[in-house]
Write a structure and sequence with these properties.
The complex is a heterodimer. Chain A is mainly alpha-helical. Chain A has twelve helices and no strands. Chain A has one domain: MetI-like (MetI-like fold), CATH 1.10.3720. The radius of gyration of chain A is 23 Å and the shape is globular. Helix content of chain B is 24%, strand content 37%. Chain B is built from eight helices and 20 strands. A six-stranded mixed beta sheet of chain B has the order 6-7-8-3-9-10, sandwiched between helices. A five-stranded antiparallel beta sheet of chain B has the order 13-12-11-14-20. In chain B, β1 and β2 form a beta hairpin. Chain B is elongated. Classes of the chains: A mainly alpha, B alpha+beta. At the A-B interface, α7 and α8 of A face β6 and α2 of B.
C-alpha cells in the first residue's frame, strides 16, 4: 500500500514538472531542428536557425531595443522605488498606509489595462508611440515591485546606522549614497534584476505603445504571424535563456545576504 | 566663574500627550564622567537624544560650550553618540568606520588612516583595522563604536546604555576600560544606564532620574550615603524605608513615630511632617541590640548567600508590611524563620521628606 502511494507521488511529481517544463523543452529542442518545420521527427541538432536569428537585422535590432528598454526602465524603477521606500520608512507621512497601498496597486492591475490607459494618455498628451513610451509603461509596472521589495527590507536597525552617519557629520545626501544605498544593495539589486526580467519579456504594453522600432517579444509576435518556423523557436530560446540568467541573479542577490 | 560645558535649561519634552521630561535642568562640567541613572521610562534616554540632537525638546534650551544648540542637527553639533546597538556601518571595514567622521570633515586619506589607527589602539583594537564589523565580537564592536565616536574629538561623548548588550563579566571589564579611556582623553562622557553598580563605578557625577525629572544628582558617594529622595534611596542601592510622622523636633534632634516605635535622629523637620527614614542594608544590626536605636524584632523570611556577605530579608513583628533589608556577615548563623532583634545607629538613618 505504502509502495503504491510512493509510486503515485512520483507519478504526480513527474506529471506536474512535465506540465510546467514540457513546452519549454519542446521549444528549445526544435530550435535545434535541422529542417524547416519545428515538428517531429527531430532532425537536429543544428545551429542554423540561431545563425538565421543573429543575421536577421530586424531581430537583432529588436533584441538591442529590448535590452535598452529593460536596463533603462529598470534603473528608473529601482531609483524611484528606492526613494519612495526610503521616504515611507523614515518619515511620518499623513495617510502613509493608504499611500503605500496605492503605490503597490499597479501590481494587481492587468498589463492590458495599464497599456490601454497609457495609450489613451499619451495620445492625449501628444507623446508618440515609441520605445520611450514603452519604457515608461515598464516603469509603471516595475516601480511598485521595486518599492515592495526594497520597503520590505528596510528595518529599524538601519535607522540607527543612518543616525550614526548623521551624528558623525554626514549631510543627508551623503547618508543616502554612502550608507543607505550600500546597506540596502541586496534589495536594490534584487529589484533591479526582477524588473529586468519582467521588462525583458513583456509583450502587451510594448505592443500597444511602440510602432516602428519595437522590442523583441513584439518582433517575435510579428514573426509568428507568418507561421511556425524553427527561427521563432531559436529566438524564443534566446529570450528564455536571458530570463533565466536574470532570475538567477535576482535569487543570488536576495538570498545570499551577509549577516550585518 | 567658568560656564559649564553643557547647560540644559528647563527642558521639557512630550511625545504626544505623554510628558517624558518635566522641566529638567542640568549642568555638565568639562572632563567629567556623568551617569544618567534611572529605570526605563524615566526619560534618561530622551534627555540623551536631546543632547545628541536627535530630538528637539518641546520646551527649554540646550547650550554646548555656551552656544545654543537646541535645534542644531546632529551633524552640526560637537557631540557624538555611541549607540546601544553600536550602529557600525556593515559594508565598511573597521578602519572605514572609524575614519568616517574625519572623511565627512574632508580630512585626506592618509591622515584619516593614521588617526583611525591611533583611535583603534586607544581602545586596544589596532589589529582589527582591515576587518569587517561582522567578524568582530560584541565587545570588540563596542570598542570600534567608541573609537569611531572619539576620533573626531567631540566636546561631549554620549553613550546610550553602551554595556547593555554585553554579558556580566565583559560588562565589568569594559566598565573599567571606559573609565580609563575617559581619563586618558579627557572628553566629557555622558552615559545612560539603569545599572546602579555601573553608575557607582563610573560616575564623577551621578544623576538619578525618575518619571521625567531629576531626583538627585551629585558625586556617587554622596548620592549613596545621603540620597535626597526616597526614590534615590531605593534605586541607587537598596534601603529599608520606615514611614513616620515627626512627633517632636528641637535643637537639631527629630523624633519620629514609626510602626516600630519612636526613633530619634539628628535632623530638622517640623513637627507633624510626614517623613521617610531610610537605612542602608550594611547599617542594620541584627541580633543582640548593639545599636542605639532599637527597631524591634523581625522574623527572617529569606537569607541569600552572596559570597562575601548574606543578604537578609526580614518582616517586622510589629508591622509585617515593613521589610528589613540587611547585610549580615558571611559567617552569620541567621536562618529563615528565626526571630531576631534589629537595631541601628542614629547617624546612619537618612531623613527624607515623604
Amino acid at each position: 500500500m505504502r509502495a503504491i502511494i510512493r509510486f503515485a507521488a512520483w507519478v504526480y511529481a513527474i506529471a506536474i514538472y512535465g506540465f510546467i517544463f514540457l513546452p519549454v523543452v519542446v521549444l528549445v529542442l526544435f530550435s535545434l531542428q535541422a529542417t524547416s518545420f519545428p515538428i517531429p521527427p527531430f532532425t537536429g541538432p543544428s545551429l542554423r536557425w540561431y545563425q538565421a536569428v543573429l543575421t536577421d537585422a530586424r531581430l537583432t535590432s529588436a533584441l538591442v531595443n529590448s535590452l535598452l528598454v529593460a536596463v533603462l526602465s529598470s534603473l528608473a524603477s529601482v531609483t524611484l522605488g528606492f526613494l519612495s521606500a526610503w521616504g515611507f520608512a523614515r518619515f511620518v507621512l499623513p495617510g502613509s498606509a493608504l499611500l503605500r497601498g496605492l503605490i503597490t496597486l499597479p501590481l494587481t492591475v492587468s498589463y492590458l489595462i495599464i497599456g490601454m490607459g497609457l495609450l489613451v494618455l499619451f495620445n492625449w498628451a501628444g507623446v508618440p508611440k515609441s520605445l520611450l513610451a514603452a519604457g515608461i509603461g515598464h516603469v509603471v509596472i516595475n516601480l511598485p515591485l521595486c518599492f515592495a521589495i526594497i520597503y520590505s527590507q528596510m528595518g529599524d536597525h538601519q535607522i540607527n546606522i543612518e543616525r550614526a552617519a548623521r551624528d558623525l557629520g554626514a549631510a543627508e545626501w551623503k547618508v543616502l549614497l554612502m550608507i543607505t544605498v550600500p546597506v540596502m544593495a541586496p534589495a536594490i539589486f534584487a529589484g533591479f534584476f526582477l524588473s529586468m526580467t519582467f521588462s525583458w519579456d513583456e509583450f502587451v504594453i510594448s505592443f500597444l505603445l511602440t510602432r516602428f522600432e519595437t522590442t523583441l517579444p513584439v518582433e517575435i509576435w510579428n514573426l509568428l504571424r507568418s507561421g511556425l518556423n524553427p527561427k521563432t523557436n531559436a529566438v524564443g530560446s534566446l529570450v528564455f535563456a536571458v530570463s533565466i540568467v536574470l532570475v538567477v541573479f535576482f535569487e543570488l542577490t536576495l538570498l545570499r545576504r551577509k549577516p550585518a | 566663574m567658568n560656564a559649564p560645558l553643557v547647560d540644559i535649561r528647563n527642558v521639557s519634552h512630550r511625545f504626544g500627550q505623554l510628558a517624558v521630561l518635566k522641566n529638567v535642568s542640568l549642568a555638565i562640567e568639562p572632563g567629567s564622567y556623568t551617569i544618567l541613572l534611572g529605570p526605563s521610562g524615566s526619560g534618561k534616554t530622551t534627555l540623551l537624544s536631546i543632547l545628541g540632537g536627535f530630538v528637539t525638546p518641546s520646551e527649554g534650551k540646550v547650550f554646548i560650550r555656551g552656544v545654543d544648540c537646541t535645534a542644531v542637527p546632529p551633524a552640526k553639533r560637537p557631540t557624538t553618540t555611541v549607540f546601544q546597538d553600536y550602529a557600525l556601518f556593515p559594508h565598511m571595514s573597521v578602519g572605514g568606520n572609524v575614519g568616517f567622521g574625519l572623511r565627512m570633515q574632508g580630512v585626506d586619506g592618509a591622515t584619516r588612516a593614521a588617526k583611525a589607527r591611533d583611535a583603534l589602539s586607544l581602545v586596544g583594537l589596532a589589529p582589527a583595522f582591515d576587518k569587517k564589523p561582522h567578524q568582530l565580537s560584541g565587545g570588540q564592536r563596542q570598542r570600534v563604536a567608541l573609537a569611531r565616536a572619539l576620533v573626531i574629538e567631540p566636546a561631549v561623548l554620549l553613550l546610550d546604555e553602551p554595556l547593555g548588550a554585553l554579558d556580566l563579566k565583559l560588562r565589568r571589564q569594559m566598565q573599567d576600560e571606559l573609565k580609563a579611556i575617559q581619563k586618558r582623553v579627557g572628553t566629557a562622557f555622558i552615559h545612560v544606564t539603569h545599572d546602579q553598580e555601573e553608575a557607582m563605578a563610573l560616575a564623577d557625577h551621578c544623576v538619578v532620574m525618575n518619571d521625567g525629572h531629576i531626583e538627585d544628582e551629585g558625586p556617587p558617594e554622596r548620592v549613596y550615603a545621603r540620597p535626597a529622595t526616597r526614590f534615590s534611596a531605593t534605586f541607587m542601592g537598596e534601603s529599608t524605608i520606615l514611614s513616620g510622622t515627626v512627633a517632636e523636633a528641637k535643637s537639631g534632634i527629630v523624633t519620629a513615630s514609626t510602626p516600630v516605635g519612636p526613633v530619634s535622629l539628628p535632623g530638622a523637620s517640623p513637627a507633624g511632617a510626614h517623613v521617610a527614614l531610610a537605612i542602608r542594608p550594611e547599617h542594620l544590626i541584627l541580633g543582640e541590640a548593639t545599636g542605639d536605636v532599637a527597631l524591634g524584632t523581625a522574623k527572617v523570611g529569606d537569607v541569600v548567600f552572596q559570597g562575601s556577605f548574606k543578604r537578609v530579608l526580614a518582616a517586622s513583628t510589629l508591622d509585617p508590611e515593613l521589610q528589613f533589608i540587611a547585610k549580615a556577615p558571611a559567617s552569620a548563623t541567621v536562618g529563615a524563620g528565626d526571630t531576631i532583634a534589629v537595631s541601628c545607629n542614629p547617624q546612619d538613618i537618612i531623613l527624607l521628606a515623604d
